[in-house]
Design brief:
The chain has eight helices and seven strands. It has 206 residues and is of the alpha/beta class. The protein has one domain: Flavodoxin domain (Rossmann fold). Strands 1, 2, 3, 4, 5, 6 and 7 form a seven-stranded mixed beta sheet that branches. A hairpin with a 2-residue loop joins strand 3 and strand 4. Helix 1 crosses helix 8. The radius of gyration is 16 Å and the shape is globular.
Length: 206
């Protein structure tokens, strides 16, 4: 059974919704999932400048543990989720990745499956480049990067070939659409399928 860590950061719930959909797809494919939310790296005063940030963080932090080194060591596959911050992943998720140097130097990240998903608050807000940006540390870790591509018809209707995505328009903060969530569910299933195939390969070779 493939073990999947869905490590994400979400401010208003859009990326959280995608994370839940990825997790649902992974479970549907027979995987075991840990959902973890990265914690804020700014102070309470900064959070207070954005309406709803403090309240949403409190709600999500009560639901999800923070990702830790032990979660990464446990996982066969790691799926990263982040809102787009000026075309890059959020600093909260990057701080989590920066803490994995101990596992990296021991080679314990090499060979794990990696995948990524994202959201933005505007069309052309950097979703594709953000997914690609999250592939960069995966490459340094020696992970096997698994994008959804167009391996399912839903990917022609939502998301990107690099990973599931959603757009929450401005002040309305529209949640991910059903098609957005379906693309994320497919990505979760695909990650488990590839992780299972990789795990079976040594036995097949032997």
């Amino acid at each position: 059974m493939a073990k999947v860590l869905v490590a994400f950061y979400s401010r208003d719930g859009s990326t959280e919704a995608l994370a839940q959909a990825v997790s649902e797809g992974a479970v549907e494919a027979g995987g075991t999932v840990r959902m973890r939310r990265a914690r804020e790296v700014v102070d309470a005063a900064t959070m207070a400048t954005v309406p709803g940030w403090t309240e949403a963080a409190g709600r999500m932090n009560a639901l999800y543990e923070a990702p830790g080194v032990e979660d990464v060591a446990w996982a066969d596959a790691i799926v990263l989720g982040s809102p787009t911050r000026f075309g890059l992943l959020a600093s909260e998720l990057k701080a989590f990745l920066d803490g994995l140097g101990g596992l990296w130097v021991q080679g314990k990240l090499a060979g794990k499956v990696g995948s990524a998903f994202t959201s933005s608050s505007s069309v052309h807000g950097g979703n594709e480049i953000n997914n690609l940006t999250m592939f960069v540390p995966m490459a340094h870790f020696g992970m096997i990067i698994v994008p959804p591509g167009y391996a399912d018809p839903v990917m022609f209707r939502a998301g990107t070939p690099y990973g599931a995505s959603a757009v929450s328009y401005g002040a309305s903060k529209a949640p991910p659409t059903e098609q957005d969530l379906a693309a994320a569910q497919f990505q979760g299933r695909r990650v488990v399928q590839v992780a299972r195939a990789l795990a079976a390969q040594p036995a097949a070779t032997a």
